[in-house]
Amino acid sequence: MATIAEILGIKYPLFQGGMAWVADHHIAAAVSEAGGLGIIGVGGADENWLRTQIQEIRKLTDKPFGVNLMLMNPRADEIAKVIAEEKVKVVTTGAGSAQKYIPMWKEAGCFVVPVVPSVAMAKKMERDGADAVIAEGTESGGHVGELTTMALVPQVIDAVNIPVLAAGGIADGRGVAASFMLGACGVQCGTVFCASEEVNIHQNYKDMIIKAKDTSTKVTGRKAGAPVRQIRNQLTAKFQELEDRNAGFEEMEALGVGALRKAVVDGDTKNGTFMAGQIAGMVNEIKPAKTIIEDMFAQANEILGNAKPVC
Ligand code: TUI
Predict the structure, then answer these.
(1) pLDDT in tens, 146-169
(2) How far is the C-alpha of 184 from the C-alpha of 164, rounded, in Å?
């Protein structure tokens, strides 16, 4: 059977996460040029922004790339149409159900890969016509579910008959090898690309990731139904205060509005939301995307080449 890399015409079975504000055409082009699948993350932007990004990435690479639609985006309908019109090769989705867009995307020839936090959502996406799913554990940065990658990935694999990629807590060859051992056909990585040379984010964001340790991230907003993993700072302490006094969704939302922009664009270390996964503690240097990917797969191949029965 064809591998996911063969199906998509890429060298490495690696997707770059569609990180809101972070994953623009700069990092996406670098990842695609390096042989992975670069992904433009639309986040909260609109369809015009996406059209420009697609034009820009096509100037930089003729290799396959993807687009991530964050389904809570109020302009999701318009953005979904642009993805179909532009015949984007791969579309990933997050933070909701992609059901209503799948027929349009399939008709346009897109390969549709929803990100799922549970077996139920994976089965639903398979029923609705998804080509593959990304099972994303709570180790990830940004909007997260409850289950860990280690528990989620094999359960999703047992439940569906489409390819499954693993995400959450993967930043080197050990994570890639472990994902394959769990039965995944590929991986999606986000945080490690926030520490790439090509990513177009404020240096303070990169520094926050480089300085982070294992316990540096925290999930805020679980009680309000909007769980987001980010690096601890003054803002997360304020979120904690609100949660401790059972503040409602509106108050939490007001504190969060614009906070990702403050992190990515302004480098505001106090008031910004520095979304990052638990693996940030292991990401200790800024490297070109190509080096990140090549090192990761050289290490994974070495480990997998040595894989032996446990006893
Ligand atoms: O989507 C992500 N990660 C994200 S999106 C994002 S932008 C944002 N900013 C502030 C607040 C909220 C979002 C930052 N990070 N990952 C994929 C993902 N999808 N994780 C969890 C889910 C998910 C959750 C519920 C997928 C489907 C789902 O379905 C619920 C339903 O029943 O519709």
Answers:
(1) 999 999 999 999 999 999 999 999
(2) 5
